[in-house]
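Listing S7. Sequence submitted for prediction.
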Amino acid sequence: TASHGLLSSPRKIKRKIPKVPFKVLDAPALQDDFYLNLVDWSSLNVLAVGLGSCVYLWSACTSKVTKLCDLGSDDCVTSVCWTQRGNHLAVGTNKGEVQIWDSSKQKKIRTMGG
């Protein structure tokens, strides 16, 4: 029967998750707010982090940190989100704008008002 096949199938091996972190990244002034989306991982293995008015990129492949942008003292980052391909980053601001950035060229492509 079908249930016998499920019972006799081999068990999945449990993953071993290390108790010690692989890497610790310092993120001073990371706001603890449920409504903000300040961290996003790209398909190209790059972590985007919004800290205050700045967005930083950390490459998991090279461990290099790059400051992508600074919105200035009168605005702050409220969200970051990579495109599916991982080349472009959308940055939401407290002023209601969404900025689209080319991460490889470190240039803003477009700003959309809200």
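Caption to Listing S7: primary sequence and predicted structure tokens for the chain studied. The helical segments are 2-8. The CA atoms of residues 1 and 7 lie 10 Å apart.
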